[in-house]
Amino acid sequence: MLGLNKRDTTLLIAVAILTLFAPFILNPFPEGSAMAQFNAGYPDLMQRFVIFGIFAVGFNILFGLTGYLSFGHAAFLGVGSYSAVWMFKLLSMNVLPAIILAVIVSGMFAVVIGYISLRRSGIYFSILTLAFAQMSFALAYSVLTPITNGETGLQVYNDDPQYLMGPDSPTATNLFGLEMRSTYTLDIGHWSFDFNAGYYMCALIMLIAVYLSIRIFRSPFGLMLKAVKSNQQRMNYTGLNTRPYTLAAFVISGMYAGLAGGLMASMDPLAGAERMQWTASGEVVLMTILGGAGTLIGPILGAGFIKYFENIFSKINDTVLHQWFAFLPDGLEDFMVFIVHPFIGKGWHLTLGLLFMMVVIFLPGGLVEGGQRISAWIRRRNTDDAEKANGKTKPAE
Amino acid sequence: MSKSNFTRRGVLRTGAASGAGLALPTIFTASSASAFTNNPTGSSVTLGFNVPQTGPYADEGLDELRAYELAVEHLNGKGDGGCLNTFSSKALDGTGILGKEVKFVTGDTQTKSDAARASAKSMIEKDGAIMITGGSSSGVAVAVQGLCQEAGVIFMAGLTHSNDTTGKDKKANGFRHFFDAYMSGAALAPVLEKVLGADRKAYHLTADYTWGWTQQESIQAATEAVGWETVNNVLTPLAQTDFSSYIAPVLNSGADVLVLNHYGGNMVNSLTNAVQFGLRDKMANGKQFEIVVPLYSELMAKGAGANIQGILGSTNWSWTLQDEGTKAFVKSFGTKYGFPPSNAAQTCYAQALLYADAVQRAGSFNPCAVVEALEGDSSSLPGIDSPSNSGFVFDGLGNGPTLYRSADHQCFKDVLVMRGKENPTNEYDLLEVVEITPTAQVWYEPDHPMFAGGQLGECNPGA
């Protein structure tokens, strides 16, 4: 279907089904139960999952295919956000022009940075991109405050021009009148599921982004990028100029980041300079490696994993712990809280770091490798069972 | 490039599928009807405490969290009741808010506006928080205040000192108890004139972002009004940790006062550098060279150690005050945690009680009713002749008689001018009160040029 082979089609359909039913999948625990703490099916986090999924998928086009490790991708995310918010300020709260401008501006930005940075490879390339990103951050944080509103972040004010805004246009971000924050809550028994318009728009865009990424991976262009990753020198010696290919990959992945930035601003019309900080660039590297660099689905999994920890674990506090362990005798309860305390709340970074280390050590291919190992193990067990049932064993050779 | 095999049928099929996908969300646009966002229906009500638990202001954030937990305890009738006994409004009786038990959720702002908004959103969308409070920087406060306005919940700002929070970025659903940069300048200038003389030349080092600029602007205007001259204002990058290259030129600039418009780790480093350069032992223009830090905090004083001795600055409150409200708060905080509370803790504790009290007086959790209650009955502070002197007047939370001004949702109260103690008796007793500047001296009109530009707008109950 759509020019994909059977395996890729299955993958795309699986992603589509997962995103469509995410409100159910992410809210497995009934409201009010102790486990409700772990529910992630509220609009803001679901939006973040798919938006950072797009960001990571785009990053993977550069890192996964060419092996060029950019440490400054957050700059494109930030540029996309700022352009989107400016569209809200100048035109109207419709998200479409905002997203389009975000992609265009971040693309142009990527051409400039890519043109300079790609003159070097390896660690030098990483450092160059990092330097550019930090430069953008510093500019956005203070020097360019008239454009970016500095530390406070760019917001939409009542007295902004908004030339396309009619008297009864919605004042919240919308897609031709469909407000991004409008949510339908479905109550089934003790469970409650949120269906949010903004989430479904992001999810649809993510599916398109994933589809494009699959096409790029499977195209001759993608093959050329993989060749760059495996041995660029050899490519150059055969008389092939690789730089246009790497630059194209860089720009495409910058545009993906800009798209993610534009979507972030569309869901929540504020652009803060921290979005461009090096920690944000590092985060997308972590997402991609955690999920599995060079795989199609890995970056999305990694993005979901990290955002889940950031938003769910950071909110568990001692009071919640005491509720969980309330069934234990007093001394033991305090002891358990004492043990778990460093890993939750302000310690969510620690938990994430430990898990990251375990993934990198035991599953070098990321979460995707974990999934593959499990499925291989199941398949092997099934065939073993089948062989046992047949009563036949292969002779030893 | 790859071979694209788009057939007419394929394109039509895809178009229909994506059209259906686009139309899908519109089915769900109807929202469950309720008078306002997160109307608490059960036996409890949830408040959201959004403070920095990681990042540069984590210390402040943790102290804020302690204060909030204490406030919840007192609201639910546990502990010794703290300021409930001294608060001038007697609406709260220790049975929760409107009879509902107070519960809370916490989040980490990381001192980033994005993360702060994400965490506040999850409190509103997932945990059903009816009010968000906290924050330890102005950028975060302004960002979260905007979010709460859109979502239709009340925002009670924590530690935020920039003029913008209740100036050009003010919002109907947002309230600030802490003082601001203008008040710091207005409170400091007369004391500086008295202690250091009216004939001084000031050199400013300013953190290069919104708060730094408003702080510098305020203190420059206030000191020039008493006759000081401003020699130079140098902006320092935010990530700067070593300020020696900025300090060296100060000596030859002809200035005799250095004003450090820095906060947190920046201030600790720049002050340490300045003292190490021997600035305080120098004579310039025939006078002793002096250093001024407009915004002080206990946690910063602790970080700078002996370097803060004799240095002037302003604070919102101090645990060494002797009024009934302060004594009650310091006592219950000290009993629970074993050390005295900071400025940040006090403002957060007061904000939590003020919100609870407003709900109780309004008889409803509806944000618009709460806004009305906090805007008060047009009572005014004595001794200030101004039409904008109108709002909700209260006392007994530690700052003396205080006005929540209805025009911009800013609290007006006395401001403390503090000095680093020469001989601290213990590690918490680092600052001493030089003067309590009365409210009338730090008063400004809502349309003052440093605050002009924003509108409160309408209160938004959401839903």
TrEMBL record, chain A:
Membrane-spanning residues: 12-29, 49-71, 91-116, 123-144, 197-217, 244-264, 284-309, 321-344, 350-371
Topology class, membrane: Multi-pass membrane protein
Coiled-coil region: none
GO cellular component, one term: plasma membrane
Cellular location(s): Cell membrane
Alphabetized GO MF terms: branched-chain amino acid transmembrane transporter activity
Keywords assigned: Cell membrane, Membrane, Transmembrane, Transmembrane helix
InterPro entries from the UniProt entry: ABC_transp_permease, LivM-like
Database matches in Pfam families: BPD_transp_2
PANTHER family in the record: ABC TRANSPORTER ATP-BINDING PROTEIN, HIGH-AFFINITY BRANCHED-CHAIN AMINO ACID TRANSPORT SYSTEM PERMEASE
Identification of the protein by name: Amino acid/amide ABC transporter membrane protein 2, HAAT family
Organism placement in taxonomy: Bacteria, Pseudomonadati, Pseudomonadota, Alphaproteobacteria, Rhodobacterales
TrEMBL record, chain B:
Record bears the keyword Endoplasmic reticulum: no
Source domain of life: Bacteria
Leucine-binding protein domain mapped to chain residues: 45-421
SUPFAM superfamilies the record matches: Periplasmic binding protein-like I
Entry keyword set: Amino-acid transport, Signal, Transport
Signal peptide extent: 1-35
GO biological process: amino acid transport
Cross-referenced InterPro entries: BCAA_transport, Leu-bd, Peripla_BP_I, TAT_signal
Protein name per its UniProtKB record: Amino acid/amide ABC transporter substrate-binding protein, HAAT family
Species of provenance: Sedimentitalea nanhaiensis
Lineage, broadest ranks: Bacteria, Pseudomonadati, Pseudomonadota, Alphaproteobacteria, Rhodobacterales
